[in-house]
Amino acid sequence: MTDQPLIKPREREAIIDALRAGVVPRIGLQHVQVGRAAETREIIRDIDRIVDGGATIRFIIGAYGSGKTFFLNLTRLVALKKGLVVMSADLSQNRRLYGTQGQARMLYAEMAKNVATLTKPLGGAMAGLVERFIQQSRKEAQAQGTSVNQAIRSKLVSLEDLARGYDFATVIERYWEGYQSGDDRLVNAALRWLRAEFSTKTEARHALGVRNIINDSALYDQIKLMAIFVRQAGYKGLLVSLDEMVNIYKLIQGRSRAPNYEQLLTILNDVLQGTAAYLGFVMGGTPEFLGDTRRGVFSYEALKSRLEDNIFAKDGLVDLTGPVIRLKSLTQEDLFVLLTNVRRVMSDRITPLPDKALKAFMEHCFETIGEAYFKTPRQTVRAFVGMLSVLSQNPGTKWQDLVGKVSVDQDPGAGAAAALTRGAKVADEFKNFKLVPGGRA
Questions:
Q1: How many CA atoms lie within 13 A of 283 on its CB side?
Q2: Using CB atoms within 10 A of its CB, is residue 30 exposed (0-12), middle (13-18) or buried (19+)?
Q3: What span, in angstroms and rounded, lies between the C-alpha atoms of 409 and 373?
Q4: What is the 3-state secondary structure (H, E, C) of 254-276?
Q5: Whole-angstrom distance, CA of residue 226 vs CA of residue 393
Q6: Which of 35, 224, 349, 361 gives 334 a disulfide partner, CB atoms 3.0 to 4.6 angstroms apart?
Q7: What is the DSSP string of 212-259?
Q8: Of the listed ranges 34-48, 138-152, 374-388, the one predicted with least confidence
Q9: Distance between CA 250 and CA 87 in Å, rounded?
Q10: Is the dihedral of CA 212, 213, 218, 220 positive or negative?
Q11: Which phi and psi angles does 84 have, rounded to 5°?
């Protein structure tokens, strides 16, 4: 029997706090990960393709509470360990792929704030990324017998040929000037530009002498620039992780959704046609976000034709090579292993809990909410952590006294999604509503 990996105290606390709140921990995922072996192998292949100079895109589709965010964070962790830089964000009503009032800029700003590397896995790595670029330039200058200025300039020339690359290269040069001269104001201004914190071109021009800023129209161009830049800084590539894609689906007006789907199509085409390099995307969404033909991705015919399932992947047959990965339900065995892992994480707080206690808990969950307890395990795990917490803080309490009292509800997000779908149908039907003079509609 192999030894279990050591759980660091920081990881232990992060896992427990996150699971208790019903959210996914950002660190320590390896200690609780179960199942999804085939899907994980495909993601590892994707990351290897990025390292080799390719581009990939995956839509991780599953119901609320099914483990989408967990899988995205696991992908993020694998990418960091493989030497990639990760930019991540959750979409919202104010953070979108497309916008005309700053929504796309706000999405990029959130992604830039959450830039992560292996040494800074929780984000905030933008400054370290630029400084590593400078260190790489110094090494090259020393090896070639040139100045650091010349090395930086030669590395940035390739960026200038890309869309919006000239201003990006200028900002990096301004950072180096400030770094070299000790001008913190210039360094901070450059970082603000890279993090999309300038809202007007005038402000950026006064601070840095550049003509443009990262605005709504620059989102994807800037991502592609970052993919090349991180390579020049010595990393293996860039992974962009976007969760809560359902917020595009939630947009009420079709004229707001359509441009977002057009932007998604641009990204998809770039990746599938091999135009992008050293770049990968993983996007998490619900089945409604993808498959609803009224408001979802499949309402946009060009996307539907590219993302439809393989017609031969039926009756238990699967094909994970396409852009869409549909997360299957955890098996009973998977859930038992998951609860076992959670028990291990909390082992320093509780008297060892026997396996029969886990089985009794699972039986109670099945009797309470049926098969939903392993189709959407978030609520089940949250309840289990709550039970263990009570046992740890109340010495003498027996697990037999608590199992029957545990209340496990279905994930509230599932009900919200159903209500939203019903609301969408009503809204679409209401378009045809007309008032007839002197009578009923």
A1: 23
A2: middle
A3: 9
A4: HHHHHHHHHHHHHHHHHHHCCCC
A5: 48
A6: 35
A7: ----GGGHHHHHHHHHHHHHHTT-S-EEEEEE-THHHHT-S-HHHHHH
A8: 374-388
A9: 23
A10: positive
A11: -90, 160
Query: Does an H or E element contain 378, and which?
Result: helix 378-393
Residue 441 CA to residue 428 CA, distance in Å, equals 16
Residue 345 has pLDDT above 80, yes or no: yes
CB contact set of 407 (below 8 Å; sequence gap of 6+): 368, 383
DSSP state of 66: S
For residues 178 and 89, what is the distance between their CA atoms, to the nearest angstrom? 29
Residues 6+ apart with CB under 8 A from 94: 102, 103, 106
Residue 384 and residue 425: Cα distance in Å, rounded?
Answer: 37
pLDDT above 70 covers what percent of the chain?
89
Instruction: State if pTM tops 0.70.
Output: yes
Q: In what order do the strands lie in the sheet with 279-285?
A: 85-90, 238-243, 279-285, 55-61, 324-326
Q: What is the pLDDT of residue 2?
A: 47
CB atoms within 10 A of CB 34: 19
Q: Given this model, what pLDDT does residue 230 score?
A: 97
Mean pLDDT lowest among 102-106, 142-146, 179-183, 250-254: 250-254
Q: CA-CA distance, 354 to 252, in Å (whole number)?
A: 50
Pair 277, 227: CB distance under 8 Å: yes
In whole angstroms, give the CA distance from residue 167 to residue 153.
13
pLDDT at 429 over 80: no
CB 342 within 8 A of CB 388: yes
Place of tokens 């050293």: 278
Q: What is the pLDDT of residue 22?
A: 80
User: Is 197:108 a contact under the CB 8 Å cutoff?
Assistant: no
Copy the structure tokens of residue 172.
């990096």
CA atoms within 13 A on the CB side of 34: 19
